[in-house]
Design goal:
By secondary structure, this protein is α/β, with parallel strands linked by helices. It is built from 21 helices and ten strands.
């Protein structure tokens, strides 16, 4: 959290963070403009010498001017390398911080901002920020230096000609301010629409099997068309402003150039300035043409970058649901777990009510109950995946709210019921939690974990075995295979407390028996919490609690609960009848 507090969440803060790079770039730009100032005076000297038949002086001025131009070109390239690299570094840091922030944030944030919109911020918005902090900053600084350098020479040649050349300046300033405001507003609206469209596409692709199975292709396309049409309208409104901006500002600049040429020619004809003066003035004024013409383009870059950064700040400045506790990470975790009076709800209605139990280190507990009883919710509160109430969950006698999140989640390994696999190989998915997935002996450990989870034979039967890429969310595997690969991942991690959320819901009876043997083996080496609706699995644990509508309605050993005549006994009878009917 300390790193988080130091990270600047404003554009000004980013500029200060990379002040050295931007400062060096600014010095190079200043040097370039100074060299160009010298070039223009050399033009004046050379032309005046030539018109006065001083060929040797003209040749000397021309040769020096060529050398200055070559050096200025090298400095120009160096300034852009430094400034553009600064923008790239900022983009890299912003993207890293974005991912770090997303990992830190909880469910309340993701309920407000969908995945597609987040992806849009991580790609399109970050690109706009990079352009702003690279190309945009460079041109803003360069414009200031060009104005000072060129105007100083122009005023030295002729005040009247300088004033005449800048007649259109106020008009350009007013136009730039108006277009900049319009670009900022419309760019922000356009990028928000792009985020919504991206989310629509992401959701449609993620649920493509459901769409096909229910023949919903038509409604899905219609929904996408509506979202895409909104994006089209916002894009066209932005394009209208951009389409007007460049021609209008170009016309104003061109009129200024024309007026300068006509008036300057008249001054030369009248003898008020020399031909060398006019050439030097024209060269200096030409250095202002690009900055003046680029005002609109730079304004667009700045507007898009500001809008993109504002959208990124929503992520950077969002408050996390769960934060690190004040205590340091414990040197050793035995795995004793105690839950005392845990009450929790999402909204007004509590989903868990006064739940209490204790699991001594090295023992096992089964949590049994019907669907919707609160078992998975309870499991997610143990490693603080949600806002665990203070004074409710204790690990080795320490309130989990006081522990650092990383150490807590390393100590409590939670294998969720809805197994998530990354789009990489089977072996990588199993070895995900290891510090070095490619280290020595990992392959054999991965295979043993897969064997314990009852999925090794099926993995080896895949086209590339353990090197098979499972696809997005493990789409290449069946539901039962995904669940067992996730179970193998939990086995391989070997935490002090292992929480298994219904690991047998998608396996057959033969595989279930094998997995239960592996679970029993793990229970001898760690504290085990087995969440299940199967009485046969619960029977292997030291103790059992039964959750019903968020309350602990029964607690005891398997044998005690069977003779108690309560919900546990009823579940056992139901499952026995179901097995007999099969």
């Amino acid at each position: 959290m300390a790193r988080r507090a130091r990270f600047p969440t404003t554009l000004r803060g980013q500029l200060r963070r990379h002040a050295w790079s931007y400062g060096l770039g600014a010095l190079l730009l200043l040097l370039q403009q100074a060299l160009m100032f010298s070039r223009d005076w050399l033009f004046k000297s050379g032309i005046d010498a030539a018109t006065r038949a001083r060929g040797q002086d003209a040749a000397r001025a021309g040769a020096v001017a060529m050398g200055v131009i070559v050096v200025a070109a090298g400095v120009r390239v160096a300034s852009r390398v430094v400034m553009f690299n600064a923008g790239r570094k900022v983009e890299y840091e912003l993207r890293t911080e974005l991912l770090s922030s997303l990992h830190r944030l909880g469910p309340s944030f993701f309920r407000k901002i969908p995945t597609g919109d987040i992806l849009s911020r991580a790609t399109n918005d970050l690109t706009q920020v990079r352009l702003l902090l690279g190309f945009g900053v460079l041109n803003v600084i360069n414009t200031v230096f060009a104005l000072v350098s060129a105007l100083s020479l122009m005023l030295g040649v002729s005040v009247r000609l300088t004033l005449a050349s800048l007649v259109g300046g106020p008009v350009l300033v007013v136009l730039t301010r108006w277009f900049s405001k319009q670009m900022f507003t419309r760019t922000r609206d356009n990028q928000e629409s792009l985020g919504k469209m991206s989310d629509r596409v992401q959701a449609s692709l993620a649920g493509v099997r459901v769409v096909r199975s229910l023949a919903l292709e038509g409604p899905e396309v219609a929904s996408f068309e509506r979202t895409s049409e909104t994006y089209l309208v916002k894009s066209l409104r932005l394009a209208q402003v951009r389409g007007l901006m460049f021609p209008i500002m170009g016309v104003v600049s061109a009129l200024g150039l024309l007026g300068t040429t006509l008036y300057g020619s008249r001054l030369v004809a009248n003898g008020d300035i020399t031909q060398g003066d006019f050439i030097a003035f024209w060269a200096a004024f030409s250095r202002l043409v690009w900055p003046l013409l680029a005002l609109g383009f730079v304004a667009a870059i700045v507007a898009r970058g500001r809008a993109g950064y504002e959208r990124l700040r929503v992520v950077y400045e969002a408050e996390a649901d769960v934060v690190d506790g004040p205590l340091p990470a414990p040197a050793k975790v035995d795995g004793a777990l105690r839950v005392s009076g845990l009450t929790f709800g999402l909204g007004d209605a509590p989903l868990l009510r006064d739940v209490s139990f204790e699991v001594p280190a090295g023992t096992s507990l089964a949590i049994v109950g019907r669907t919707g009883g609160g078992k998975s919710l309870l499991a997610s509160l143990l490693p603080r995946l949600l806002q665990t109430p203070r004074g409710a969950v204790f690990l080795d006698g320490v309130d989990v709210v006081d522990l650092p999140l990383a150490s807590l989640r390393q100590a409590i390994g939670y294998a969720q019921q809805d197994a998530f696999l990354f789009s990489t190989t089977v072996a990588r998915n199993i070895a995900l939690s290891l510090d070095d997935p490619d280290g020595p002996g990992v392959d054999e450990r991965v295979r043993r974990a897969a064997d314990d989870a009852g999925v090794r034979a099926e993995i080896e039967a895949l086209p590339d075995g353990f090197a098979t890429v499972v696809g997005e969310r493990g789409v290449q595997l069946s539901g039962g295979q995904r669940q067992r690969v996730a179970l193998a991942r939990a086995f391989l991690r070997e935490p002090a407390v292992l929480v298994l959320d219904d690991p047998l819901s998608a396996v057959d009876a033969k595989t279930e028996a094998r997995i239960l043997e592996a679970i029993a083996e793990r229970a001898r080496r760690c504290t085990l919490l087995l969440i299940t609706h199967r009485v046969a699995a619960a029977a292997r644990c030291d103790r059992v609690i039964v959750l019903e509508e968020g309350r602990v309605v029964e607690a005891g050993t398997h044998a005690e609960l069977l003779t108690g005549g309560g919900l546990y006994a009823a579940l056992a009878a139901e499952q026995a009848h179901a097995e007999a009917d099969q």
